[in-house]
């Protein structure tokens, strides 16, 4: 993707499905359809308008086909790219290209998961790996624990720094009526919680919930005639690094370096221009890594950067203002929900947690075991 596509496609509608724990018999497709109906209503569009369909799921094997059947639509353009939690930022990139090429006019990105209801192991079982399985890792958490341990060893990052990420997320969640967690959380509580995979405690790990979301994109010109103010796609970057954690070239540096550089280059902006961030926080180490790799601080400084409430409400940089995967909702794959929050912030729809003068937002997705990284930058009309 290049700078010529900057701002030519906009988000017209967004919505979550119900979040939390669903009634028995609820399927991921039910949640995708529920979110779709809400997102189309948000945009002032109908199913008849949708001619592009983008779906990723760990539970629905043939996502685009099954959702198209469920919704009763026949999209001209479709994409089932599944690279984990970053799939949806990748879908934004592909939807922009499709709309610009005339392959579709209205693109729907949808996701749904019943991971809590059916159990984590049933929803997303790791692929067999003869090189790692003999060591009996608890995946994915053990993979992220390796990255956290290495970061602590190389840069002096502490468990308290990790805990600051969890506490900041909880403080934001307490301002979000839709967030799952409703009780305050202190650093000492994180540190004293049950250890899952050293150095990550249960409070360093994301929620396991049911839920989903949907996003509707169309051309900027069409979006301006619809119900809500358009939020423009300014830049998108995609990168793949490795498949398994034992093959990650460097445990403390992710390919978010490449995806971020591509997104910023397309947008013509840099980290200093960003007002709000949605960083994939399946574990507390990931926002620290991504703040570094996306250029918000130097490599190794992420722990110190998040200290003393710097990314919490009232801090110098708003991160995961919905509460993130740690305290708001993490239904197996979180990337779409991160983008929904960024769009809401730019629209000014976030109530108590609203970031003042919010014109540029960054949502960053992570897939598998730090394997895929995709970055999306969104902006208000004032950024064009």
Automatic annotation (TrEMBL):
Q: Does the keyword GTP-binding apply?
A: no
Gene3D superfamilies, alphabetized: 3.40.47.10
One Pfam family hit: Thiolase_C_1
GO molecular function terms attached to this record: acetyl-CoA C-acyltransferase activity
Q: Which UniProt keywords apply?
A: Transferase
Membrane spanning stretches: none
* Keyword Iron-sulfur belongs to the record: no
The organism's place on the tree of life at top rank: Bacteria
Q: Which residues form the Thiolase C-terminal domain?
A: 237-379
What is this protein's name? Acetyl-CoA acetyltransferase
The species is: Pigmentiphaga kullae
């Amino acid at each position: 993707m290049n700078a010529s596509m900057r701002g030519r496609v906009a988000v017209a509608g967004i919505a979550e499905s119900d979040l939390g724990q669903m009634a028995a018999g609820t399927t991921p497709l039910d949640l995708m359809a529920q979110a779709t109906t809400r997102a189309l209503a948000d945009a002032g569009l109908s199913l008849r308008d949708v001619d592009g369909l983008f779906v990723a799921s760990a539970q629905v094997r043939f996502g685009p086909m099954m959702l198209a059947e469920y919704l009763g639509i026949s999209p001209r353009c479709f994409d089932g790219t599944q690279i984990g939690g970053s799939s949806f930022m990748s879908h934004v990139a592909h939807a922009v290209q499709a709309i610009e090429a005339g392959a579709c006019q209205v693109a729907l990105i949808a996701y749904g998961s019943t991971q809590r209801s059916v159990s984590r192991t049933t929803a997303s079982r790791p692929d067999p790996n003869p090189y790692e399985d003999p060591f009996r890792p608890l995946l994915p958490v053990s993979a992220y624990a390796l990255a956290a341990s290495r970061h602590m060893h190389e840069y002096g990052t502490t468990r308290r720094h990790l805990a600051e990420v969890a506490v900041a997320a909880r403080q934001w969640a307490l301002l979000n009526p839709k967030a799952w967690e409703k009780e305050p959380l202190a650093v000492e509580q994180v540190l004293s919680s049950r250890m899952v995979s050293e150095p990550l405690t249960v409070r360093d790990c994301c929620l396991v919930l049911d839920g989903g979301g949907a996003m509707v994109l169309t051309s900027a010109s069409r979006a301006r005639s619809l119900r809500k103010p358009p939020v423009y796609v300014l830049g998108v970057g995609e990168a793949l690094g490795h498949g398994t954690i034992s093959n990650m070239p460097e445990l403390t540096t992710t390919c978010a370096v490449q995806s971020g550089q591509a997104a910023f280059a397309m947008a013509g902006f840099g980290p200093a221009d960003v007002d709000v961030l949605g960083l994939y926080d399946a574990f507390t180490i990931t926002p620290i890594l991504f703040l570094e790799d996306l250029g918000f601080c130097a490599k190794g400084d992420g722990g110190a950067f998040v200290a003393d409430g710097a990314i919490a409400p009232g801090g110098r940089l708003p991160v995961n203002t919905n509460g993130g995967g740690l305290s708001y909702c993490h239904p197996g794959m979180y990337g779409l929900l991160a983008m929904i929050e960024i769009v809401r912030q730019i629209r000014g729809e976030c109530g108590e947690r609203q970031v003042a003068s919010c014109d540029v937002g960054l949502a960053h997705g992570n897939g598998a075991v730090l394997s895929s990284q995709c970055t999306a930058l969104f902006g208000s009309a004032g950024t064009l």
